[in-house]
Amino acid sequence: MIKAQNIDLSFNGKKVLDNVSVTFEPGKTNLIIGRSGSGKTVLLKSIVGLHNIESGEIWFEDILFNKLDFAGKTEIRKKMGMLFQGSALFDSLTTEQNVRFPLDMFTGMSLEEKTERVNFCLNRVNITNSNKLYPAELSGGMKKRVAIARAIALNPKYLFCDEPNSGLDPLTAILIDELIREITEEYQMTTVVNTHDMNSVMEIGEKIVFINEGIICWEGSKNEILNSDCKILNDFVFANSLAKQLRKSHE
Amino acid sequence: MIRFLNQFGKYFLLLGKVFSKPEKTIIYYKQTMSEMVYLGFNSVGIITIISFFMGAVITLQTAYNTENPIYPTYLIGLGCRDSIILEFSSTITALILAGKVGSNIASEIGTMRITEQIDALEMMGINSATYLILPKIIATLIFNPLLTLISIIVGIVGGGIAGTLTGVITPEDFIYGIQYAFIPYYITYSMIKTLFFAFIITTVSSFQGYYVNGGSLEVGRASTRAVVYSSVLILLFNVILTQLLLS
After folding, report:
1. A229 belongs to a structural domain
2. Dihedral of the alpha carbons of B87, B93, B99, B101, in degrees to the nearest 10
3. All residues at 6 or more sequence positions from A228 whose CB lies less than 8 Å from its CB, including other chains
4. Is residue A13 part of a domain?
């Protein structure tokens, strides 16, 4: 379980996170949703320690993460995997080397063992015959899948995904969503996904947190989101005309 | 002034982060080897070309400025040798490398920053500063003295060839000149300067790239700043080191 309590963060005097408290449950796909610039990515990066929060607490199980020193954080981070918005694959490394990178850095595995693990992870995300390709030679969807393979290489306990569907066509986006959900269930990870894609919300949103201007405005499940009386949330959820029409027909 | 002090402090904090214990030595060894090829070996060509022509020009200029029967012609060789060893091969080479290697380092690290590759390293529990910068520092500290030596040799050879082909000096006089009153300490002085310059180029450029904030435009700006600041610091330290080492 991951718990953030009363966290605050400002950039250049502007409050980006305002007294944010949220809990992410294990074995579930937890979603942070909100408009662009609402503070989703900042919240996610604050939780994993890429931004230093001004006040508040971030707990991973019973460990107060934000008070740990670099070595302490490193130990927790070995249990984390993260999928970045732009995939963040290392340009100078091939697909295989990218996935092997955390294994090279943190395990004493032999080359054969590492190759076996890399192939397992790549097969798990349905990437085949691309081991020797560089990130520049991969499509957007393939990059995301390779990034997921890299994120799960060390069998993480926590998986963080920042806008996993951005820049992908709807079909590929659904594939990525399904992959995240399957992996979460398979390895019983605590998964936190940042998104503003309502398809993702309806596909994988087991627990949903809605953030607006750095404030958590609503929490619930995908079954509750369509019947919420939170106006800002409704404006976001029913922003496009298709959703509006569906709501009308539903009413 | 406050901004300058802020940057100055950040630079030393980054250095503190860079010189911490690496996670896995073998990975850093491989990184250092590849940086030696990338930053050092790949600069041999440009250094050779520039040094050759630099040596040629120094010889010709020395010859045209000492056209007087009271000066023995071997002084042209001596002047060429001392100019190259004392100043050109260490300082000019460093300025060229500040342009080539410095901009390369800043743009590489800057691009990694804006594409979240540095965040990805941090997320894995890797000290990104050590992983990205330390191998570059070690590689340039090892390889740049070699580049300076190559520059000295090629520069003197270039001077000899230019002097002989234009007829301003005979090969015998040039060889006599480059051997005359040779002070081995000058090589040590040149190497010490090279080590300082290599450290400046790598750390200043890495610093500029590491703290890039924004998009590709900022990476370009960081790259320019890396070259400008490295060059100014090289010239400043050239004066300081010359005073300290030759006075």
Report:
1. yes
2. -140
3. A218, A220, A234, A237
4. yes
Q: In the predicted model, what is the mean pLDDT of chain A? A: 88
Q: Does A82 touch chain B (CB under 8 A)?
A: yes
Q: Which domain holds residue A65?
A: 1-79+188-251
Q: Which of A73, A90, A106 sits opposite B117 (nearest CB)?
A: A90
Q: Does B125 touch chain A (CB under 8 A)?
A: yes
**A chain contacts of residue B24, beta-carbon cutoff 8 Å:** 104-106
Q: In this complex, do A85 and B127 lie within 8 Å of one another by their Cβ atoms?
A: no
Which ipTM value was assigned to this complex?
0.86
Coil/strand/helix, residue A55:
strand
Q: Which residues of A touch B124 (CB under 8 A)?
A: 77-78, 101-102, 105-106
Diameter over CA atoms, chain A: 61
Q: Is residue A122 part of a domain?
A: no
Structure tokens at B120: 């990805």
Query: Domain containing A196 — which CATH number?
Result: 3.40.50.300
* Nearest residue to B229 via CA among B243, B214, B211, B208: B208
Task: Write the pLDDT tens digit of every residue in A41-82.
Answer: 999 999 999 999 999 999 999 999 999 988 888 889 888 999
Count how many domains chain A has. Answer: 1
Q: How far is B2 from chain A (nearest CA, A)?
A: 16
Confidence band for A175, pLDDT divided at 50, 70 and 90: confident
Q: Do B124 and A102 touch (CB under 8 A)?
A: yes
Q: How far apart are CA B125 and CA A146, in angstroms?
A: 19
